[in-house]
Write a structure and sequence with these properties.
With 263 residues, this protein is α/β, with parallel strands linked by helices. The chain is 35% helix and 25% strand. The radius of gyration is 19 Å and the shape is elongated.
Length: 263
């Protein structure tokens, strides 16, 4: 049985990850981790899972050695936990977004000790979008305009989403471009005609939207769209759990969803 720790356990995503881990017969939840000062520290996480008590309390540190840590927290917390758990030989699955280059370099360093899967989106459908967007961009060529539109709930802190950036990065990789040379983020004012090769990323924050992403390819006379809508956070939680099961048996290194889940 695979022993799992969850960081950011009481957040929107962390709670769904814990619920999916708890229901999976191949996994055992041993730690629910949260930041210092969190109001639920010391409390049993049973009510969040739909049971009275489960014997796992919300803590700052893990009391036992986990086989894998699943992290949906904040950038600074995810880096701290990655460094700490990698030193103990625990595999890492990181879904947190918004890392700086310095923070990402620390995660990369941790991946030299343990297998570390980091992805801005754990949904299998979105990971198909990453590949399809790259293939479509390469096939259509530079005559087609590309716009990426992402929508998330009002509480999301980073913009644009890590998923939208990943889509743009995959398109650039497939078309031999650098994201910093072609990307813009929204438009304002008298911006003039749209130049060739530009990729514009738009970030919408609306109510309780779980996560919608759309990639629009357009030329004079037609448009082509790739669209993904997440109906609940369980799509990300289930993807993270699936990744956790597979990553524990991998050698140290930095992985993406496509490396452990055959898409």
């Amino acid at each position: 049985m695979i022993k799992v720790a969850v960081n950011g356990a009481c957040g929107r995503m962390g709670a769904r990850v814990m619920a999916n881990v708890w229901e999976d017969k191949e996994l055992r939840l041993i730690a629910a981790l949260e930041r210092e000062g969190h109001p639920l520290l010391g409390q049993d996480i049973g009510p969040a899972l739909g049971v009275k008590e489960c014997g796992v309390k919300v803590t700052r540190e893990s009391n036992g050695k986990a086989d894998v840590l699943i992290d949906f927290s904040e950038p600074a917390s995810s880096v701290d936990k990655a460094v700490h758990f990698a030193a103990m030989g625990t595999a890492l699955v990181i879904g947190t977004t918004g890392h700086s280059q310095e923070q990402f370099s620390k995660i990369k360093e941790a991946s030299r000790k343990v297998p570390c899967l980091i992805s801005p989106n754990m949904s299998l459908g979105v990971n198909l979008i990453f590949q399809l967007a790259a293939q479509v961009a390469k096939a259509l060529g530079n005559d087609y305009d590309i716009e990426i539109v992402e929508t998330h709930h009002r509480f999301k802190k980073d913009a644009p989403s890590g998923t939208a950036l990943k889509i743009a990065q995959e398109i650039c990789k497939a078309t031999n471009k650098k994201l910093e040379d072609v990307a813009i983020y929204g438009r304002k004012g008298l911006v003039g005609e749209r130049p060739k090769g530009e990729i514009c990323i738009h970030a919408l924050r609306v109510g309780d939207t779980v996560g919608d992403h759309k990639v629009v390819f357009g030329n004079l006379g037609e448009t082509f769209e790739l669209v993904h809508s997440a109906h609940s956070r369980d799509t990300f939680a289930m993807g993270a759990v699936r990744a956790a099961k597979l990553i524990v048996n991998k050698p140290p290194g930095l992985y993406e969803m496509k490396d452990v889940v055959k898409i």
